[in-house]
Every structure is written in C-alpha cells, then in structure tokens.
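Posted in: Protein Modeling Q&A

I'm a second-year student putting together a small comparison for a lab meeting, and my supervisor asked me to include a predicted structure for Nitrate ABC transporter, ATP-binding protein. I've never done this before, so apologies if this is the wrong subforum. The sequence is pasted below exactly as I got it from our records. If anyone can share the structure token output, I'd also love a short note on what stands out.
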Amino acid sequence: MEPLVALRGVSKGFASGGSRVEVLHGIDLTIERGELVAIVGYSGAGKTTLVSLIAGLLAPDTGTVRFAGAPVTGPGTDRGVVFQSYSLLPWLSVHENVLLAVEAAFPAWDRTKHAQHADRYVAMVGLAPARDKTPGQLSGGMRQRVAVARALAMEPELLILDEPLSALDALTRGKLQGELERICVRSGKTILLITNDVDEALLLADRIVPLGAGPRATLGPSFRVELPRPRDKRALQHDHTYKETRAAIGEHLLASSPRAKRRVAGATAEVAR
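Accepted answer (user: helix_wrangler)
Welcome! Here is the predicted structure, written out as tokens:
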C-alpha cells in the first residue's frame, strides 16, 4: 500500500534580495497511515515551508508531493493544520469556533448532527466545561486546545501540528504536552508534528526525523522511538533508550549547523579557561 504522505526529491526556494535562496533541498519523506511522525529542527530551518508543501499551500520547485496516492495540487479538508497562532474568531464561543469548521467540512449534515459532532471534539480536548466561553476568557493553553479540536473535528486523514505549543510558557507547555499525547493516541489519527523541541518529539512521536539547518535544509535519518505508551515526561528522564535516542538526534542536528558547532566550541573553550 502506498504511504499516506510521500515527498520525493522536493526542493523549494524563495526570492531574497534580488537572488533566490533554496530553503529545502532534495527532501524525501514518507508517512504511513496511523503514524505519529515528528520533524525536529532549528528555528528558520524550513519546517513551516515543509508543512505548507504538504498542506498544499505551496508548490515545490522540483520533486513531487503526493497524498493518499494523488499529487497535492492545493489545500483540502483531508489535511488539517494547527499553527502556532490559534486563529480563533474572538466573538464566537469554544463550541461555535469548532462548529464553524464542522459545518464547512460536512455541509450535508443537519444542525443537530453538526452540534453533536462539535461537542464531541470539544469534550475530547477537555473543554466541555468551557464550551460557551469566548477565546478572550481562555488561557493560551486552552485556546490551543480549541484549535486542535477544530482541526480534529473536520476528521482529516492527516493532522499537521506546526509547533502548536511553542508560544506557551514552559509550565503550560509541559502540561499540554501530556494532554496532547492523550488526544493523539485517543484520536488514532495520522499526525505530523513540527517542533524544535527534541524532548517534545520523544514524548509524542513514533518516529522522529531531524531537519538540518538551512539554507538548503535536508532531512536526516529516521529515529524510531521505542518507548511504551503512555509516556511520562519525568519517568523518561531515567530511561536508557530515551537518553540514547535524544543524544543521537541532538548530535545529528548539531552536525548540520556550523553556527551551533561554533557556539559549542566557544562554550567548551570558555569552560577550559
């Protein structure tokens, strides 16, 4: 069976200062149905460009992007995206924000079915008690959960999470990581997680693929996460497999970035003095 997502030899660049800068180069990536794959990379490496190619918001300069066996020619409800920004309508309640997406995805349903479906996903992300609150009455973590519920409620074949927790404070981010793992496992969706946090990827993913530093960023080897679920972040700190996988991913990312290597070398020299 063909993978759900297949990128072959994909490159993408943009005009900059009178010249063209290639952001991604020779990207090969496959995602099987039911997988939770994390792409980990430095800020500015091209992770969001990669998301936009898979979502159909951008077209590759070279190579092919296929989804469910067909070429990607534009956006579709078969791919749901949760971005860093919540993009909620501030005058609508939690329920109404999710309901709006449900009505767009399933126009043939009646009003009752729309409402019940929206409520199901509001409850899935733990926001049933806040159902009738507007975004202004919610914390940042709660708003992000609304964005996740909205994307899931459209029942996409692929859920793309583009650094969904990066704008949150450390305490909220840590709490929501655990909740996100529960939501991901419960939904059973194929999920692509984009993050700059290796620990977050190890907590959530089945497989991690590092994206090297740009420009002309390429994907590194896949790292299979052989850790049982559910995963506890504190318990993982003492797990040998976790430590080995984390170190291997970190080494690959470091090797791809001359700037990062210079920082490490400088810090080492400073300690030696």
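A couple of things worth pointing out for your meeting: DSSP finds nine helices and ten strands in the chain. Residues 88-155 form one domain.
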